[in-house]
């Protein structure tokens, strides 16, 4: 349910995360990035309030599934009221006390303000190339001080939905914008990387041609982590020199 209050200005240096909206990944629930949970100081809220620049607010329920936390009840209302569309960019700035300021950028790059939905969100096929290109490639790793003087570290990442071809071929195309910026050693120069989860670490070879492809070792990573079609993996670059990626897995609900 949306509640209108006065116009707001978002303070600088709040801890934040972002999402690129895709209906099949971000609706009817939205995962809170695992690396962001530390800003709750060990007390994950049962409910959160999302507030936009126009001063409207939405109450959303926070629920746990496996080891991940999601915006659930109330989130579809936020999606509908803001008429979120495929490819739009959202930032969630945490002000504390379970409250987030949310900014939405349209696919033209302009900030959306005071939107009232007049139709259902669009649906788009979730094919391999679309997932690769709009998967959430985060901003460059950076550091800043928030309002409390805490050091906030942002790590680049991208999300991939596991498709049958990834399991069958035992290979994965790295999201292009992410790979070109953070993992590119020059075309034709193959190299080794490492994928890390709470189950261990797996070396993988990276084939570097017109795009980066995780090859040898990726099949073992799939098998060891029991990945299935529909699982969503977030690949976060935690060591740029050693090309180490921390992988968080959101399991497809059965």
Terminal Cα span: 29 Å
Low-confidence stretches: 116-153
As a percent range, the share of strand residues is 35-45%
Averaging pLDDT over every residue, what do you get?
Answer: 77
Helix content: 10-25%
Oligomer status: single chain
| Number of extended strands | 18
Structural topology:
Elements: E1 2-4, E2 16-20, H1 23-26, E3 30-32, E4 47-51, E5 56-65, E6 68-71, H2 75-81, E7 89-96, E8 99-105, E9 111-112, H3 128-134, E10 142-145, E11 151-154, E12 157-161, H4 164-169, E13 172-173, H5 176-183, E14 191-197, E15 200-208, E16 212-214, H6 218-224, E17 232-239, E18 244-250
Parallel strand pairs: 4-8, 14-18
Antiparallel strand pairs: 1-5, 2-7, 3-6, 4-5, 5-6, 7-8, 8-9, 10-11, 12-17, 13-16, 14-15, 15-16, 17-18
Structural features:
single chain; 254 residues; alpha+beta; At1g16640 B3 domain; nine-stranded mixed sheet; seven-stranded mixed sheet; 6 helices
What does this structure look like?
One of its GO terms (molecular function) is DNA binding. It comes from Nicotiana tabacum. It is found in: Nucleus. The protein has six helices and 18 strands. By secondary structure, the chain is an alpha+beta fold. The protein has two domains: 16-105, Beta Barrel (At1g16640 B3 domain); 157-250, DNA-binding pseudobarrel domain (At1g16640 B3 domain, Beta Barrel). The strands form three sheets. Strands 1, 2, 3, 4, 5, 6, 7, 8 and 9 form a nine-stranded mixed sheet that branches. A seven-stranded mixed sheet has the order 12-17-18-14-15-16-13. The longest helix has 8 residues, at 176-183. Mean pLDDT is 77; it is low at 116-153.
């Amino acid at each position: 349910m949306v509640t209108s209050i006065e116009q707001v200005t978002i303070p600088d240096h709040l801890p934040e995360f972002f999402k690129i909206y895709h209906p099949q990944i971000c609706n009817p629930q939205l995962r809170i990035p695992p690396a962001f949970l530390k800003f709750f100081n060990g007390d994950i809220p049962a409910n959160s309030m999302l507030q936009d620049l126009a001063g409207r607010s939405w109450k959303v329920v926070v629920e746990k599934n496996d080891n991940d936390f999601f915006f659930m009840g109330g989130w579809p209302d936020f999606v509908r009221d803001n008429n979120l569309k495929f490819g739009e960019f959202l930032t969630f700035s945490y002000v504390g006390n379970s409250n987030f300021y949310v900014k939405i950028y349209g696919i033209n790059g302009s900030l959306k303000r005071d939107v009232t939905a007049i139709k259902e969100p669009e649906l788009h096929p979730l094919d391999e190339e679309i997932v690769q290109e709009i998967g959430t490639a985060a901003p460059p790793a950076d550091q800043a001080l928030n309002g409390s003087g805490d050091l906030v570290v942002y790590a680049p990442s991208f999300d991939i939905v596991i498709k049958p071809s990834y399991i069958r071929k035992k290979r994965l195309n790295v999201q292009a914008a992410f790979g070109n910026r953070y993992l590119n050693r020059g075309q034709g120069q193959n190299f080794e990387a490492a994928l890390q989860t709470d189950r261990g670490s797996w070396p993988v070879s990276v084939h570097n041609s017109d795009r980066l492809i995780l090859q040898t070792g990726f099949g073992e990573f799939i098998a060891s982590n029991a990945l299935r079609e529909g699982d969503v993996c977030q690949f976060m670059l935690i060591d740029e020199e050693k090309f180490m990626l921390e992988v968080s897995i959101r399991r497809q609900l059965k």
